[in-house]
Amino acid sequence: MLDWKKASLVSLGLLSLAASLPLGARDRSAPRIDMAKARSKAAALVARMSPEEKVRLTWGIMPFSLAPNAPPLPVGVLPAAGFVTGIPRLGIPDLTETDGPLGIGYVMGLRGDYATAMPCAIALGATFNRQLSFAYGKAIGTEARAKGFNVLLAGGANLARDPRNGRTFEYLSEDPLLTGQMVGWNIAGIQSNRVVSTIKHFALNGQETGRKFVDVQISDKAARESDLLAFQIGIEIGQPGSVMCAYNKVNGEPGCASQYLLNEVLKRDWRYPGWVMSDWGAVPGLDAARYGLDQQSGAGLDKEVYFEKTLLQAALSDPAKMARLDEMNVRILTGLIATGVLGDPVAPGGQIDFAKHNDVALQSAEEGIVLLRNQAGILPLARDAKSILVVGGYADSGVLSGGGSSQVHNKGGPAITRVLMSQGAFASFTTEQYHRGAPLAAIRSRKPTGSVRFRPGRYASDAARLAAKSDLVIIFATQWMAEAVDVSDLGLPDGQDALISQIAAANPNTIVVLETGGPVNMPWLNDVAGVIEAWYPGQAGAEAIARVLFGETNPSGRLPVSFPASTADLPRTEVPGMIEFDPVLFGQQPDPGAKLYTDYNIEGSDIGYRWHARTGRAALFPFGFGLSYSTFEATGLATDGRTASFLLRNTGSRKGSTVGQLYLVKRNGVAMRRLVGFAKVELQQGEERQVKLKIDPRLLADWNGHGWSIASGTYEFALGDDAERIGAIKSVKLSSRNWRD
Ligand code: BGC
Predict the structure, then answer these.
(1) 702, 225 in Cβ contact below 8 A?
(2) What is the pLDDT of residues 602-613, one digit of tens each?
(3) Can you tell me which atom of ligand 1 is nearest the CA of 97?
(4) Phi, psi for 568 (deg, rounded to 5)
C-alpha cells in the first residue's frame, strides 16, 4: 500500500524534465507555457504559508444551492460551479470556477447573465480543425475572464466508448488522436486568456448511468492505448493547469482516489505538473490525498470536507502528510502561475465582443455539420423550389442543446424549455432547451419566392398529407442528451423515426436535419434524399444549417464517431445498469450495497471504428465520413513510418475543405485500423496541395507495461476517405523500438 511519504514524493524532482521532453512527432505547435519555472515560484510561495493557509486552496465550495434553506453565499461570490478562497496576503486570488466546456455555464440562471453558446464538443470534433478548436477555446476563455472567472471547467476528453453515454455531446470523438489534438488546442486557446482550463473527466468516465459508483474494468494496456492516450496527447498540447478526476471507479479504485490513474499514470509517467481537482461530490475520503488528489471541489457535496480541518490535523501530526500537503499547494500554484492567473487577477464586468464570438460559433457549427446523404444532388437546395415544408424539432423556435452542467444560455435565454422531470432539486437541470435562432426563419429568409410552411410534427398523418403536396420537405429530428442520463438506444425518441418514414413515403424529396448529441440509427435512410448531421449547433446553429442547405457554405465536417447500423453492433447491447438504476438518482449509489461493473476489456482499445474493423461489421456511416458539394482526391502517399506526405486535390467544381486521413491498416500481417494522422485543408476548384504529417509513434506501438514498443516488421498504411474506404496500401519496414513515456 502506498504510504504518505511516497505519495508526497511522486513526481518531485522529475518536473524539470517536463519542459524538456523530446518533441519527437508529438504535436506541440500550440503556444507553450513554462510549467517548470512556475513550479519553482510556487514552491517559494508555499514556503511562506502557515499551516492554516495550506488548507485554504485545497478545497472549495459549490457557490450556489438549490435548497430553500441554504446558507447565504459569502459576500461578492458569484453563483457558479466552484469557489476556492484565496490567500490575499500572498497575492493568491480566490479561484472562481465556471463550467465549461461549451461556453460559460448558466447555473440555472442564478447570475442572470448570458454567454456565447458554442456548438457542442462533438460538433467541434467533426470539424477536424485544430486552429478552430483554439479559436473556440480562446473565445470561451475570454468570456470566462470578462465575467470574473479564472478557472474554466472545460476540456472534456473522454472517448465515445459507448455512444449512448449521455455526455457524448460534451466530448470530441471516439479516437485518441483526434480527441487529444482537438482538446489540446482548445485548452491552449482557453488558457491564452490567462485563465486555467481543466481537462476532464480523468478517466474512463464512459457512461452516466451509476456514474458515481460504476466500476469499470480495463487492462492497463487497453487504457493506455485509448482513453489515456487521448488525455496524454491533450495534456502535452494544451498544458492544462488542472486535471479533473472522474466519478467512476477504475478496476476498483475511485477515479479521484486512484493510485493507478493519479499517482502512477498522470504524475509519475506523464510528469504532469499541475493539480488534480475532484469532480463535484467525487471524494471518498481523506485518503484521496494520498492517492493523488490535490483539491476537493464542491466539498459540500461529499460526506465531509476532508481537505480542510481533517487534512490539517493529519498534516500537523505527521511530517509525511505535511510534505504531501505542501506538494498539493505547489501543484495548485504551479497551475495558477504557469497560466498567468496569479499575475493578472480577473474581475467581473469585462467587455465581451459577442459579435466576434458569434462568428466563431458560426464557423464551428458550419464546419461541424456533416453531410451524410445527398441523392441526385438534392442539396444544395434550389432557391426556386415552389413549396417547402419544414417539420418538427421546434425548428420554428430554435436549435437543441445538451443538458447538465455544460448548459449555456445565450442572449434572451432558451426559446423553448421542455420539462422532462417536474420533481426534485435537479428538475431544472433536466430540461430540454432550445437556443434562440430558428432554422425556419433562416430558411424563409433565403427563399424569396414560393412558400415555406411549418408543421410541429406531432401528428404524422397531417404532416405527411401536407408533405405530399409540397416540392420538398425538411424534417428536423432531435435526440436530447444530458449529463447524468444515458440514452437507452440509438433510435430517435418520441416516435420521430415513424414520423420520418411516413413523410418520406409521401414525398421522396425529403431531407432530414439531425440535431443529436451523437450517433443515431436511421431505419428510414434509404427512403430519404438527404441527411445532414448538425449535432447541437449552438446559438448560430440556425444560420449554419441554412447556409449548408442552400450551399452558401460547402459542408466539410467528418464524423468523429461511428454511426453503427444497430445497437446490436456495439460491444455491449445495453448500457450496464440502465434498467436497475433510475436516472433520477443522478448516478448516485442507491444504497451502499449496490454494485455496478462495466467491462471495457470486451473492446479494449478498439473503440468505435476499430471495433467495427475488428468485428467486420460495417457501420451505417463510418468514422471520418462526410460528403461535400465538391469532390476530392487523396493520392501519392509516401511514408517512412515517422512522417507521411500525400497530395490532396479538389476535383469538383467548387471551393471546399477536405480532411486527409491516414490510417495504419496492418502490422506484421495483422489487420487493424488506427487513425495516425489527419489534416484539414481548404482547396479552390482544381487546386491541389501537398500535405505533410508527423506520425505519433505511440499510435504504431503497443503499451508493454512500462513504456511503448514497436515490434520490427512490416507496417501498412493507407489514406482513407473514412475509416472504411481505404486507398492504396503503402508498406514500410520498421525496426524494433522501445521507449518509456
Ligand atoms: C460534472 C463536471 C462539472 C461539475 C461542476 C459535475 O457534476 O461532472 O463536469 O464541471 O459538475 O459543475
Answers:
(1) yes
(2) 999 999 999 999
(3) 5
(4) -65, -20
